[in-house]
Amino acid sequence: MSTPATPSIPPAAPVPPGADLKAVLSSFCTGVAVITACGSDGRPAGMAVQSFSSVSLDPPLVCFCPARTSATWPRIRAAGAFAVNILAADQEELCRRFAVTGGDKFAGVPWRPGAGGAPLLDGVLATVECALEDVLDGGDHLIALGRVTAPAARRDGAPLLYFRRSYGCLPRSADRASMSSSMAAARSRSEA
User: Fold this and answer.
1) pTM to 2 decimals?
2) Residues near 78 by Cβ (< 8 Å), separated by ≥ 6?
3) CA gyration radius, the chain
4) HSE-up (13 A, CA, CB side) for residue 30
5) N- to C-terminal Cα distance for the chain?
6) From CA 65, how far away is CA 53, in angstroms rounded?
7) Mean of the per-residue pLDDT values for the chain?
8) Is residue 15 within 8 Å of 23, Cβ to Cβ?
9) Angle made by CA atoms 21, 97, 114, in degrees to the nearest 5
10) CA 50 – CA 97 distance, rounded (Å)
11) Distance between CA atoms of 80 and 117, rounded to whole angstroms?
């Protein structure tokens, strides 16, 4: 009995000249989070990301993708542990504060240290404390893989979203009810 041939996958075509890949990819709506850690000097470090994602439930792994040029990433990496602070719809200003380079991002921002020492920001929807598991190459970014050590829901509310270079939130409750039933039906058919 012969084994069926594995179809060959053609190499990826280069992005055509003049194509605005960033604009195209901005059509994918993401949530927003602030990654925090406590540096070796005892000072907190933090950066806003939209690249946070769940990777695995068993073992419990998450990831985010810092830019290779990030001034904050080396401090988070050196800490060996970090927290993901998932932002609520009313925290756009907090996100903007952590999206810039330099300055004291934590000035006037209420937080407390988590079990692993990373800052847990007040008012966020949820926090996910992690031990840095691995760092992989991701082109002009890196892929930071974290093993979840302490997940916690903090409050109810809508998430802060980022879409086509703008912030937004989910529709209000009347629209959300119909959206929730559609999502539940889709989830029952999901393979992810």
Assistant:
1) 0.79
2) 39, 40
3) 19
4) 17
5) 33
6) 9
7) 85
8) no
9) 105
10) 14
11) 10
- In DSSP notation, 130-192 reads EEEEEEEEETTEEEEEEEEEEEEE----PBPEEETTEEE----HHHHHHHHHHHHHHHHH---
Model confidence over 125-163: pLDDT tens digits?
A: 999 999 999 999 999 999 999 999 999 998 999 999 887
121's tokens: 């920001």
Q: What pairs with residue 56 in β-bridges?
A: 61
**Distance from CA of residue 150 to its chain's centroid?**
16
The identity of residue 27, as a single letter, is S
Cα→Cα distances 89→103, 151, 165, Å: 24, 20, 15
Q: How big is the chain, counted in residues?
A: 192
- CA dist 164 and 146 (Å) reads 28
Give exposure, 120-133, as e/b (b: 16+ Cβ within 10 Å). Answer: bbebbbbbbbbebe
Q: Which SS3 state, helix, strand or coil, does residue 46 take?
A: strand
pLDDT at 58 over 90: yes
